[in-house]
Design a protein that fits this description.
about 240 residues, Peroxisomal Thiolase, Chain A, domain 1, nine-stranded mixed sheet, about 30% helix
Length: about 240
């Protein structure tokens, strides 16, 4: 895998912590639709709306598990011989949030969904940048939202932290620039064997990609995430072009 480096112009960004006890304000969604949404979709819509209100924007939605909990409930209903709500079924797909968001805003811009295991957020950032690079005049909204899987699935390696993050890629970037990097690493390197990191690494390592990215956005300090021979690195640059 060759090393990859790309720079994202950040117009706005928003986040929602998984630990929040408050309900996300999504008053822009009609009540009849709002009542049917899962917590995952609600927090995703909240951070998305924080970054893009009425202006058109392409959307890249990212989630490792997506609406897995809703799907699990549907499977349990089928197993018990109970009827399944067509609405529940239609909202169980990975990209349910993008459809609701586009309809609410009357935006027919393209929307896509990404799921890539523990590296979902990193690859979604790459996908969002690739789409932005094809048409820099049209903003791209990246929305990441996730929650741990149902306990029925047992222990999941590198389980998600939960919560939501949205980043608007816009050439009129007012916040700054996010410098992203993906490189291959040796699994037998000192850090992998529990030995100290080299002095050349100034980034804090985190157990999940979402925690690493959020740390970078909130503090402006570099952050990294490393698993399965891949090293993801994020750095904030307020003066990049």
């Amino acid at each position: 895998m060759p090393d990859l480096h790309w720079t994202i112009p950040v117009g706005r960004w928003s986040s929602w912590p998984a630990t929040s006890a408050a309900a996300p304000d999504i008053g822009f969604i009609e009540p009849i639709v709002r009542r049917r949404l899962s917590t995952l979709s609600k927090v995703a819509l909240k951070v998305a709306h924080d970054c893009v209100a009425l202006e058109p924007a392409r959307v890249v939605f990212a989630s490792r598990h997506g609406e897995l909990r809703r799907t699990t409930d549907i499977l349990r209903s089928i197993s018990a011989g109970e009827p399944v709500s067509p609405t529940a079924f239609s909202l169980s797909v990975l990209n349910a949030m993008t459809g609701v968001f586009g309809i609410a805003r009357g935006d027919r811009s393209a929307a896509s969904a990404v799921s890539a295991g523990a590296q979902t957020l990193g690859y979604a950032l790459l996908e969002a940048y690739a789409q932005y690079a094809t048409r820099p005049d049209a903003p791209v909204l990246l929305v990441y939202a996730d929650e741990p899987a149902d306990l029925a699935y047992g222990t999941i390696e590198d389980e998600v932290h939960g919560g939501a993050i949205a980043v608007l890629l816009d050439k009129e970037a007012s916040s700054g620039h996010l410098v992203c990097a993906l490189s291959r690493v040796d699994e037998d390197a000192p850090e992998q064997r529990g030995e100290p990191r080299t002095a050349s690494s100034d980034a804090t390592s985190f157990p999940t990609q979402s925690q690493a990215l959020l740390h970078c956005l909130e503090t402006g300090q570099p952050a990294r995430w490393q698993r399965a021979g891949a090293l993801w690195h994020w750095r904030w640059d307020g003066g990049a072009t």
